[in-house]
What does this fold into?
Amino acid sequence: MSVENKGICNADMPVHDTGTGNVLSRRLNKILETRIENDKETLEALKELSTFFTENTLQARRNLRSKIEKRSLVINEDFLSAFRDVKEVLDAIYSDVSEMNNSVQKMISRLQATKTQTHHLIDQTTKLQAESQTLSLQKEVAGAFLRSFQLSPAEQAVLRGSSRECAITDEFFTVLDRVQSIHSNGRMLMQSGHQTAALEIMEQMALYQEAALERLYRWTQSRCRNIESPETSILLSMAMSRLQGRPVLFRYVLDEYRTSRRSVLVTAFIDALTQGGPGGTPKPIEMHGHDPKRYVGDMLAWLHQAIPSEKDNLLILLKGCDKTDVSDQILQTLSHITEGVCHPLKVRVERMLAVDTDATVLYSVTNLVCFYKQVIGQVVPGSQLLTTLEELQELSQHTFLLALQSQVRQQLSECVETPPSDLSPSPGVSQLLNLLRDVLSVGCIAEGRQQDLPQIVSIIVEPLLQAINESATRLPTSDMAVYLLNCLYQMQSTLSLYEFVDELLERLQAQSDAQLDTLTSEQASSLVANLNLGSIYTILQEQGKGALSSVPGMEPTGLKNFLSKLDAFLVMQDVLLLPQICLLLSGTHRSIVQHRAFEVIAAIYRQLYEAVHDPENLYQNPGVLMPRSPDQVLKLLIG
Amino acid sequence: MSAGPYNYSYIFKYIIIGDMGVGKSCLLHQFTEKKFMADCPHTIGVEFGTRIIEVSGQKIKLQIWDTAGQERFRAVTRSYYRGAAGALMVYDITRRSTYNHLSSWLTDTRNLTNPSTVIFLIGNKCDLDAQRDVTYEEAKQFADENGLMFVEASAKTGENVEEAFLETAKKIYQSIQDGRLDLNAAESGVQHKPSQPGRNTLVNDQQVNKDTCAC
Ligand SMILES: Nc1nc2c(ncn2[C@@H]2O[C@H](COP(=O)(O)OP(=O)(O)OP(=O)(O)O)[C@@H](O)[C@H]2O)c(=O)[nH]1
Ligand SMILES: [Mg+2]
It folds into this structure.
């Protein structure tokens, strides 16, 4: 077919100014130029052609054209019938579409109607939506309000506890604090105008708080016996800090606490007394029951050392209490806690304080008790323990003084009666002075104890002095003086170590001086007698008119008797000393007596010397009679 | 647990002993206050100081009893050895007499404390080297012979003061770890957690046993 079309086309080509030959050649060229192998249409046409143009005969070539036309016709007829079918189908579709169109038209009009109807509805919905938004906002606000001003059921459960015995936990305090803060926020709420709500909230919170604190109080009261347990102790401190706003509850808990600590302390004290440390070290304190100093000292030191721990515990328990000053409470509680040990302590110390105990030991105990009274008085002033210690101190002091007096009495009666022959202080004196030394050597460990010392000294020294004086009166004068001087000397040397006995020392010194005078005059009289100076001295004193050399006893020969004795005496002075002088314990006393007695002799010598050298007395060669000047004699005698 | 009100797990009791004037109170003051007291009055009887330290990650409260060196207080101070976990025995390196008295102090200490009590010898005033009257070597030998820990220190400069107190605590802590020190017993000088001056609770005891088993 296409070949045919082409042929037709070519044949219809208009020929203008070119010749037939030209047309022909052009056609030829064209044919020649045709690339059949590339022209699909031509190839297709040729292929089709070969299906019915089977024999290349003349006949066939002649019929070709009509044959092709016939075939073309058949094809066109086929096409026509096929197309008819198509057209029919399309017609059917067309009618369907028109019908649809009708329906759609109807639907549109219906929709239009609906739309006008819905418009109103939409308006309404929009309004409702806006309303819903407002409401949900309000809901959120209300929720937030509730969250900040109300307790959640969970929180309420924490506060209430599942049962009475239910333990308090950290959470409890969180919620309790929240209740408190809600309550105080309520005030703000009130200020911002929401009075009713605020009041209601505050009232409600107050109720919660009351119930919670009540529960906390019960719990705390039952747990405060376990302050050592670290788990509860944290909670206990927190509990106390919450309870401080309820003074009554607070006090009840403290009461419970101190009662329990009090018995713990007593138990521990008794254990230390009777059981001691691990494996018996340290030994139980009562092992020292035979040694009152140690026993009492250990008990008191134990108590002194127990108090800081109690104080620590208490400080920890109350460390959260910042609203009020708890230092008073601490003191009161501490003093109550230590009250329990008072009785066991007192009983034991009292047992040590028997009158027949050694006075020195009793004095040590008194000192110890006094020391601890001061120490413990600083830690727990005004406590029962302090009162107990004061009572014990008084008792101890009293017992000590009684024991001292009785010990003094006993020793006096035993030993002071007759002075020994060597006139040394009798053993009783030494013993009593030793007692004094022992007592005073205890050393004052407590402040302000110095004032007792004069009393102690006088308890020993006064009866001693009296006894010495009594026993001395039985002796001859010189012996008495020496004995007293020896006793006084011993007392003085003992007492001079102490500063507080000045007055007594003065008295002793005065007594010594009196005895020294007595002894000096005894010695001087003895010297005067031994040197035959008696009459000379008397005459010199009475010297009247007339030359002395002519007075009987004063003539040179009479004087020579004395002067030769004096010469011997100057060489060997000791010979004429009273034997008792050597018995003086004190070298000072000895030399004082000697000095003073010799001074008496030297003075008489001087008087005689001056009289002899006085021309009125008509002595011849006074320088020969008395060659030694008074000063030389004095020097020889006294050195 | 460290957040609790007891920010310590043990209390150790110490005593400080030695002749008067050797610087016991100054050592204590230096340790607790980190200051030197130039004119410190003689101690009357006993004084008391505390400080919390740390040993092997454990907080320990030291309860320190400073005794008077004056002879007249001996009757009082003797009672404080009882149940001490540590005893610091002090002499003055510039005064030989204070060194010479050590053996009598040591006798007292041994008689009045537990066998487990840690005794630490301190030669104080080592800042006064020019006035030295006791050599380091002889004191060291004395310490070694008697099984004491020893250091020369100065309460004035603070030298070795901290060390003496801490080393003593370490040794005590070691004794606890080794189970040589029975915490359950009263008056061991150590308390596990603050407690009454006596018993510790059973819980603590078990804890300690556990500790010891784990080693
Ligand atoms: N240079 C120097 N002086 C010191 C040192 N330690 C103490 N002192 C001085 O020594 C004196 C006595 O010190 P204290 O601490 O009171 O002595 P103590 O051992 O407590 O004495 P008592 O309480 O009587 O037993 C004080 O004057 C201190 O200033 C030191 O390390 N160096
Ligand atoms: Mg001191």
About this structure: The first helix of chain B runs from residue 24 to 33. The beta strands of chain B are 10-17, 46-55, 58-67, 86-92, 118-124, 149-152, 190-192. Chain B touches chain A through 46 residues (CB under 8 Å).
